[in-house]
Each structure stands twice: as C-alpha cells, then as structure tokens.
Amino acid sequence: MTGAQTNKSICVYNEIGKLRTVLLHRPGQEVENIVPDYLRRLLFDEIVYLEQSKREHDQFADLLRDEGVEVVYLTDLMEDILGDQKIREEFLKEFMIEGKAVTRGLQEALTEFFGGLSPKDMIDKCIAGVRTNELKHIKPKSLGDMVKNPYPFYLDPIPNLYFQRDPFASIGSGISLNVMSNETRNRETLFAKYIFNYHPRFQDAKRWYNRDKTHPIEGGDILVLSNKVVAIGISDRTDPTAVERVAHHLLSSEEGFETVLAFDIPKKRAYMHLDTVFTMVDYDQFTIYPGIEEPLDVYSITKGKENELHIRYEYEDLAVILKEHMKLPAVNLIRCGGGDRIAAAREQWTDGSNTLAISPGKVICYNRNYITNEALRKNRIEVLEFDSYELSRGRGGPRCMSMPLIRDLL
Ligand SMILES: NC(=[NH2+])NCCC[C@H](N)C(=O)O
C-alpha cells in the first residue's frame, strides 16, 4: 500500500518512505519579537532576519511540492477550527493561562483584543506574541495589573514554531503529543492538542503520550526507523521516563512495533535532539555526527512478560546494533563533515546531520553544509539543497522544520 492510498490521517512507519504529506509552519512576526535580552530563554543564539528566512522557508516548501508532497500549514489547520466560537473561547482561555496572562484586567483586555480578529489573524497573533504597547486600556483589577512591569510582552512570542518536528511526533497511525523541556516551547503543543482534538481530518489519530504528563519528550528525539523499530533519544530535551512511557504504549498497541532503541546522547545545546546528530537517509544508510559515537549508550526496550518492558544495554557499536535490530545485511554510517573534526563540528552546528528524507536515498539539506552534502553524494544519496543563511540561526535543519503526516510503507 502506498501512503497516497491510506485512509488514515497519520501514517508514519518509517523515516525514508516516499513522503506524501508534511506539516510546516512558515516563520512570521514571532521572529521579529526575538530580542537580545531574551535570546537564550527563547532558545535562539542570534536574531533572525525575517524576510530572508521566509524566502528560505518558501524554497523548502517548493522543493517539497515539486516532489509531489502535500504541504499543510499549521496556521491553516488552526484557522479551520477557530471558526467555531466555542472552541475559540476554550482555546484562548487555555492559551492565556499557559502564557501566564492570568490577572483579570489583562485577561479581559486580551479577550477584547482577540475578539476583534478573524481566525487567521488571531492565530498569527497568538504565535507572534502581544507587546505591551498593543493593548491600550487595561482596567486594573488585580495587583498584577497595577504594579509596574518593564517586561515588553503581555504574551510571549513563540519563535520556535517553525521547528514543527518537536511539539508532537507522528509514529505509526498515532502521535506523541509532547511535553516540552523548556517553558518557552510549551504552548506550541497546545496547537497540536486542539488540532488533534477538534480538526475533522485528524480524529482517528491514536495517542502515545500526552502533554499533561510530567516528563519531557520532544519530536526531534523520535525516529521511526522501520515498522518494527523506533529510536528515541535521551537528550537535553527528552527524559528516560518519557521514553519508557512511549515505549510502553507503542509496544502494547496493535501497531506492530517490536523494539524501541533508546539512544543516550550527551546533554548539550549543540545537539539538543537525536536528529541533530543522527538521521536516516536510505534503507541501510544514516548520517551521524562523529562527536557522539564515543559517548553513545544504546538500550533496547522490548515487550517482556506480563505487560512489563524488557530493557537491555546494547554492548555493540552503533552500526552493529542497527544492523541487528533492523535485520539488515550491513549498515553504512555517513559522517557529518566527511569525518573531518573541524568541518564536522562546524557543519553540525548548522544542522549538517539533520537531513529530511523524501524517499529512500533522496534527502533535503541546507546548502551551506557542503562537505557533509558531498559525503552524502559520494554514498549515492541524492541531495536537494536550499538556502540556509537565516533559518539555520535557530539551530534546526530540514528535519527539525517538518513533521511528516503520511509516508509510503516500505
Ligand atoms: N528537531 C530539532 N532538532 N529541533 C531543533 C529545535 C531548535 C530550537 N531553537 C530549540 O532549541 O528548541
């Protein structure tokens, strides 16, 4: 069966099967609300130039469309559901509370402000954030409305939303609705919550994790290696307890997954998710950042007796672990930066290892990582490139920016 024929809204049983439908978010005004004082808290290292980042993002979307992929935008899905007055009110209430706009006077002013907006403008504004100079009259009703506060936002911007890989993750015919590790990204998962609760297109999607849980897990750590094996990073962002919970739900479902490989990678900003150091590019080929090979620990999780999980430390090298669990004759690891230490570190920083496969052996990459791209081509991988001056400043690449909804089965 091809993905085009599935009647499921989510169908992701591999990393490389022909990509049919993908979810993106085009960067918008939220990026213009990144200021130096709050850079780090917003998880950016630099200010992004919006116009150029839009051009680059459009190139990315066009490449996908030229390959026959249906590109769905998060804001369009949200617009569809915010037309319903009841859902709109429920959403706004939750959005304000989670955005820490809790004082009475402020909530009333924000409700009035958003009340005058179309669903499209409302969702754009929720993402962009609300500056204090945008609300004219707040009737002070709580102490918090009265005291002076130099902070420039009533609602913070959500600038990491263009990294659609992270707030939820498609696995099989369901999703892991994630708990984000940093508060600044938590409201991103609210959009996914509302889409999966209310959008008619997605009512059949199963859940492997939910945003009301305590332990964080982010989509950049989740790789569906095959219809039997899922890899999940234990990283700066993903906690082992969350990995275990997702494994428990997946392995006890009817989906057919048999093993979760937990990759314990160094907890470091440069490689905050597994997909910044490891991605799959073909049936038996992967990219890897050499800097993680030495410290990497891998655990295999399988179904044990009586609903318990069986967890085992894997002693072999990564290539052997992958070969055995994926039942492949051999596995080739393609090193970021062609294996050169300096080039590898430099290109990993701009997401050289973060490829998005659109079919087996065909990937989309940033053009700036030319040494890694060359290494991929030497291994007979077809590489499609696009500009990457600005988008890369957010520390994410083509895989981070996309969430596959439907891929062909292999
Ligand atoms: N899947 C990924 N690697 N996403 C990268 C996210 C980058 C984003 N600025 C963050 O720090 O959260």
UniProtKB/TrEMBL annotation:
<keyword id="KW-0963">Cytoplasm</keyword>
<dbReference type="Pfam" id="PF02274">
    <property type="entry name" value="ADI"/>
</dbReference>
<protein>
    <recommendedName>
        <fullName>Arginine deiminase</fullName>
        <ecNumber>3.5.3.6</ecNumber>
    </recommendedName>
</protein>
<dbReference type="GO" id="GO:0005737">
    <property type="term" value="C:cytoplasm"/>
</dbReference>
<keyword id="KW-0056">Arginine metabolism</keyword>
<dbReference type="GO" id="GO:0016990">
    <property type="term" value="F:arginine deiminase activity"/>
</dbReference>
<comment type="similarity">
    <text>Belongs to the arginine deiminase family.</text>
</comment>
<feature type="active site" description="Amidino-cysteine intermediate">
    <location>
        <position position="400"/>
    </location>
</feature>
<dbReference type="InterPro" id="IPR003876">
    <property type="entry name" value="Arg_deiminase"/>
</dbReference>
<comment type="pathway">
    <text>Amino-acid degradation; L-arginine degradation via ADI pathway; carbamoyl phosphate from L-arginine: step 1/2.</text>
</comment>
<keyword id="KW-0378">Hydrolase</keyword>
<dbReference type="GO" id="GO:0019546">
    <property type="term" value="P:L-arginine deiminase pathway"/>
</dbReference>
